[in-house]
């Protein structure tokens, strides 16, 4: 337990100091941390296993989110893990109930009902059981349809746990292990999904990029890189314009990578985005987060590109892994979900020190330097249909976890 | 000088539609000749209307009968020997006269039959190296183009036309005399050195005229050749023609005749027709322009395909060479040369500053100007100015406003009363230039400041982009008269001119916020007004300005913030601009490649030689009129839809320029 606590603290510090860059890396670190938290979690035998686990994860999650509230991926992943726990919990319960029904039908034994209650769901009402049954039996969700990843978290365990309860040898410790084991399985799958999100997105590249396409992108995003390279590997030849992406100019890195893979790449300044967009077939950017209303938070400058794309009716494609789907509805996201970086990226310290003395007497500084990190693209400019987003989010998160 | 000139030229139609009429000939040597080519081709090849190639030419332009007779006359008499030609020839033979200095070229033309087809004069031109800077180069290297080119091209041609007839017939005579003059290629450089610069102007114009005529003749003969395929032995249009000499001569002379006649009225008309720009993806024209250029430009290795029509040259390698030439040059006035170098090095930035520097240099050049004997001040000075302008273009493409200023100057030269003595004319020109600077630029700025400051109220947050001297003046003035406001300066790589503005404003005690262009939608929420400078505004209200302006205006529009553009009326332009691609200027790509941040430094260096990686440094972009709420100009505050009104009405009354 103490070693888990120390790793949590370490990670919180890293988040606070913005040592971890990119939402994918953050998401992966978070989910791995949560996995270790869960596996090290010792639940008291008498208590409700699932709720204890949920509490533990929530506590850690709150710390992580507080460390970097702007990095929405942390919160998203925590919510995903909570969702997994709930699902596992429910599926176990359903299995138990199913076992009960089975037993009821066979020999109508009262003892079994007691046994079922003794398993650890004392508060379980008939309604909950019904809900659990619904959740296991529900039709394939949009997520399964879209990504082809079946909700294996629920499906396999119904049978196994059903068999388990049928054997009627389930005692408390085995159930605890069972739940934990299942949850960790689920979390592993989440890790796998986050790690593989680039490949999954890149698989679709070939469907969206045709021959001789001219693509504009902004800044640097690994998803975009993989996406473009996947299309390139399929022998499509197209041109890429890369806006360098002030203030960090990571577009140069992206351009270098693209050129190394043999793509025809042109680096332009950010200011030339509007000038060039009329000759561009498609704008592809990587997002920082996708909000529940369909708005997109991306690297700074994205809103400008989206406006220009709208003006010239150019398709504006946002690539985002599922860990970037955020179930929150943004309020004033330009300001609240943003963070200001160091002015030194824009102006050298000391460069203006000679003329700053002038305003020293008046008390307020004459010179402010604004250097935001993110940009918010309102849903009206692109991204998904808001209603669609909300359905997608319902697949990933449970409503209880939205407020952390 | 030719009495028949007037009446003949009357039926000459505006040359706008002539591109297509001459183009159908598939063998036309320059498939996409943009500027002066088609007009010359038409004027010169029209005499061939009795020849098979005549069918390519629009029948409406010149009455065929007259040309027919011309043609007949020229064919009947191998040497028509018009008055001026004889005169020139006399002069030519008289070596003591300065005017005779054009002879080397003529004789060269005469004595080198294999390359008779216009390449001669060009080769000789390249031999002269940087000294040769005649006006035609202007037309070839005018990327920013514009109406000013009308003047730039037209004026030289009239002087060319004047001498063309002399030189061509002259050259032919020499040919007939079987190189009796014993001038050869070997002696030419020596001769050239002897020539004074003023005289060289003459010979240059003549050479140019020969070249034009020959080129036109070649185009015509090409059409002819396509009919008589067996006769013609030219494999490619760009290669020197191997056609027998006499066949070429007839069209040549007649063409120059007709050209000469057409010029004077045509020039009035062409004044109204905007010229197209030099397209740099047109190989043959670029090659020709290059041979005449003073500035040696090496083409950049990694060209951006989309912008092949714009000049893409390596930067910074010509400067030392040019600076060392400053004491040896004689065709370019030293003041103009200096300004050119300053443009090249980027020492002068900002449209107004560049324009004023150029006009001052012209003032100085005109002051030092003396009309050579046997020359007309109007003609010669215009040719001279053309030479300067083309040099300036080589240094850096002109801005629209500079083009307008040059057009103004040429107008003034053209309108000089004939009876004015040379010192008087010079004085009047200089004072006109001074008046232009004072009235159209400096005073206009003051008026704009007065207008714009009424739009600044207390507590406002004003956003500006990059650096515009008018906007700076407005902000400083508003601060002076005690308005309380905050300024947001948006900046962008690679020039980071906003830092200059920031420094100036902060030293004066203005409250400033500085950010980069990507953050403009972050900051726009708190902004109440956007002030932008302009490089030019076109008839359709499109604002042509520093790259990034369009982004700022667009975001402001999305946030419903009014966009106020401050622009002097002399920058207005009657052309129409649709996008930022067709007409633009490309800056140094290395400026993009070199990222200032330390951690990125290592990347760009290694990638320089990769074919797939290009850096595009656009200098301007065009902002659609719908993003602009108001334009503050010296005629008041107007909506962008009123630009054509100002351009048309005021120009008609000659108030604008």
TrEMBL record, chain A:
Among InterPro entries, the record links this protein to:
eIF2B_beta_subunit, IF-2B-related, IF_2B-like_C, NagB/RpiA_transferase-like
Q: What is this protein called?
A: Translation initiation factor eIF2B subunit beta
Q: Which GO terms describe its molecular function?
A: guanyl-nucleotide exchange factor activity; translation initiation factor activity
User: What's this protein's family per the entry?
Assistant: Belongs to the eIF-2B alpha/beta/delta subunits family.
Biased composition, class Polar residues, residue ranges:
143-164
- Identify the SUPFAM superfamilies for this entry: NagB/RpiA/CoA transferase-like
A Gene Ontology term for the protein's cellular component: eukaryotic translation initiation factor 2B complex
Q: Which Pfam families match?
A: IF-2B
Q: Where is this region: Disordered?
A: 143-175
What is the originating organism of this protein? Answer: Brassica carinata (Ethiopian mustard)
Highest taxon of source? Eukaryota
Gene3D superfamilies in UniProt: Translation initiation factor eif-2b, domain 2
TrEMBL record, chain B:
Annotated region Disordered: the residues are 1-129, 153-296
Bias type Low complexity, positions:
44-53, 211-223
Q: Which domain of life is it from?
A: Eukaryota
Q: Where is the composition biased (Polar residues)?
A: 109-119
Which portions of the chain have biased composition (kind: Basic and acidic residues)? 189-210, 224-234, 258-272
SUPFAM superfamilies, per this entry?
A: NagB/RpiA/CoA transferase-like
Q: Tell me its family.
A: Belongs to the eIF-2B alpha/beta/delta subunits family.
Q: What is this protein called?
A: Translation initiation factor eIF2B subunit delta
């Amino acid at each position: 337990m103490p070693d888990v606590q120390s790793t949590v603290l370490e990670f919180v510090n890293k988040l606070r100091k913005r040592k971890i860059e990119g939402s994918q890396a953050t998401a992966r670190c978070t989910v791995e941390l949560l996995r270790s938290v869960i596996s090290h979690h010792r639940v008291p035998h008498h208590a409700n296993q699932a709720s204890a686990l949920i509490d533990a994860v929530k506590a850690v999650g709150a710390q992580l989110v507080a460390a970097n509230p702007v990095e929405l991926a942390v919160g998203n992943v925590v919510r995903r893990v909570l969702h997994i726990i709930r699902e596992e919990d429910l599926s176990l319960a359903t299995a138990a109930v199913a076992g009960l029904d089975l037993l009821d039908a066979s020999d109508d034994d009262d003892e079994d009902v007691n046994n079922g209650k003794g398993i650890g769901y004392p508060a379980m009402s008939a309604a909950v059981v019904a809900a659990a049954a619904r959740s296991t039996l529900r039709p394939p969700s949009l997520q399964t349809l879209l990504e082809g990843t079946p909700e294996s978290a629920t499906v396999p365990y119904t049978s196994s746990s059903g068999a388990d309860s049928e054997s009627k040898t389930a005692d408390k410790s085995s159930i605890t292990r069972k739940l934990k084991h299942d949850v960790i399985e689920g979390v592993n799958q989440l890790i796998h999904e986050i790690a593989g999100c680039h490949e999954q997105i890149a698989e679709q590249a070939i469907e969206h990029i045709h021959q001789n396409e001219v693509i504009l992108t902004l800044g640097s995003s690994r998803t975009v890189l993989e996406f473009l390279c996947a299309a390139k590997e399929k022998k499509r030849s197209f041109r890429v314009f890369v806006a360098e992406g002030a203030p960090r100019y990571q577009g140069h890195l992206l351009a270098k990578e693209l050129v190394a893979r043999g793509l025809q790449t042109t680096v332009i300044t950010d200011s030339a985005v509007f000038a060039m967009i009329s000759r561009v077939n498609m704008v592809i950017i990587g997002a920082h987060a996708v909000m529940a209303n369909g708005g997109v938070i991306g690297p700074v400058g994205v809103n400008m590109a989206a406006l220009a794309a709208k003006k010239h009716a150019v398709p504006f494609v946002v690539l985002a892994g599922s860990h970037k789907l955020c179930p929150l509805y943004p309020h004033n996201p330009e300001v609240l979900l943003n963070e200001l970086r160091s002015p030194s990226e824009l102006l050298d310290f000391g460069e203006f020190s000679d003329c700053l003395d002038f305003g020293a007497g008046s008390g307020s500084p004459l010179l402010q330097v604004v250097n935001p990190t993110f940009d918010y693209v309102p849903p009206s400019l692109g991204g998904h249909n808001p209603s669609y987003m909300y359905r997608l989010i319902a697949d990933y998160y449970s409503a209880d976890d939205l407020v952390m | 000088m030719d009495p028949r000139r007037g009446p003949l030229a009357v039926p000459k139609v505006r040359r706008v539609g002539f591109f297509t009429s001459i183009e159908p000939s598939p063998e036309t040597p320059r498939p996409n000749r943009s500027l002066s080519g088609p007009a010359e081709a038409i004027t010169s090849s029209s005499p061939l209307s009795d020849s098979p190639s005549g069918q390519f030419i629009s029948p409406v332009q010149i009455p065929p009968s007259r040309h027919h007779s011309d043609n007949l006359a020229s064919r009947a008499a191998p040497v028509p020997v018009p008055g001026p030609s004889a005169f020139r020839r006399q002069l030519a033979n008289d070596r003591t006269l300065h005017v005779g200095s054009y002879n080397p070229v003529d004789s060269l033309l005469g004595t080198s039959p294999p390359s008779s087809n216009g390449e001669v004069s060009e080769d000789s031109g390249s031999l002269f190296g940087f000294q040769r800077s005649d006006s035609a180069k202007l037309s070839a290297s005018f990327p920013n183009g514009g109406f000013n080119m009308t003047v730039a091209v037209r004026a030289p041609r009239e002087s060319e036309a004047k001498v063309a007839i002399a030189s061509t017939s002259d050259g032919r005579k020499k040919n007939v005399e079987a190189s009796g003059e014993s001038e050869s290629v070997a002696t030419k450089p020596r001769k050239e050195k002897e020539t004074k610069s003023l005289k060289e102007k003459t010979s240059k114009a003549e050479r140019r005229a020969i070249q034009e005529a020959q080129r036109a003749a070649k185009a015509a003969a090409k059409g002819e050749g396509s009919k008589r395929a067996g006769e013609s032995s030219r494999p490619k249009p760009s290669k020197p023609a191997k056609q027998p000499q006499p066949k070429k001569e007839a069209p040549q002379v007649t063409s120059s005749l007709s050209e000469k006649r057409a010029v004077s009225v045509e020039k009035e008309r062409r004044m109204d027709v905007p010229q197209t720009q030099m397209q740099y993806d047109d190989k043959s024209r670029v090659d020709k322009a290059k041979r005449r250029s003073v500035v040696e430009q090496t083409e950049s290795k990694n060209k951006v395909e989309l912008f092949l029509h714009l000049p893409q040259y390596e930067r910074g390698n010509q400067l030392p060479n040019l600076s060392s030439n400053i004491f040896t040059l004689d065709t370019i006035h030293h003041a103009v040369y200096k300004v050119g170098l300053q443009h090249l090095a980027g020492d002068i930035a900002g449209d107004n500053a560049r324009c004023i520097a150029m006009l001052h240099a012209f003032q100085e050049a005109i002051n030092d100007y003396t009309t050579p004997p046997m020359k007309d001040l109007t003609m010669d000075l215009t040719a001279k100015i053309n030479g300067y302008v083309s040099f300036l273009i080589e240094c850096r493409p002109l801005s629209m406003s500079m083009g307008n200023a040059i057009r103004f100057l040429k107008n003034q030269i053209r309108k000089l009363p004939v009876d004015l003595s040379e010192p008087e004319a010079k004085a009047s020109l200089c004072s006109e230039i001074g008046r232009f600077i004072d009235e159209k630029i400096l005073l206009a700025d003051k008026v704009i400041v007065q207008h714009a400051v009424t739009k600044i109220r207390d507590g406002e947050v004003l956003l500006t982009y990059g650096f515009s001297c008018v906007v700076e003046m407005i902000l400083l003035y508003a601060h002076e008269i005690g308005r309380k406001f905050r300024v947001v300066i948006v900046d962008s790589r690679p020039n980071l001119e906003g830092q200059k503005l920031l420094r100036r404003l902060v030293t004066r005690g203005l409250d400033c916020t500085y950010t980069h262009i990507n953050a403009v939608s972050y900051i726009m929420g708190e902004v109440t007004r956007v002030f932008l400078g302009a490089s030019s505004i076109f008839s359709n209200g499109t604002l042509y300005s520093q790259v990034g302006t369009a982004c700022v205006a667009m975001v402001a529009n999305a946030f419903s913030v009014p966009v106020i553009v401050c622009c002097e009326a002399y920058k207005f332009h009657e052309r129409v601009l649709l996008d930022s691609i067709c007409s633009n200027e490309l800056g140094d790509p290395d400026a993009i490649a070199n990222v200032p941040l330390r951690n990125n430094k290592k990347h760009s260096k290694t990638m320089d030689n990769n074919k797939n990686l290009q850096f595009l440094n656009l200098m301007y972009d065009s902002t659609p009129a719908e993003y602009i709420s108001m334009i503050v100009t010296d005629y008041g505050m107007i909506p962008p839809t009123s630009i054509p009104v100002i351009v048309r009405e005021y120009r008609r009354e000659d108030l604008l320029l």
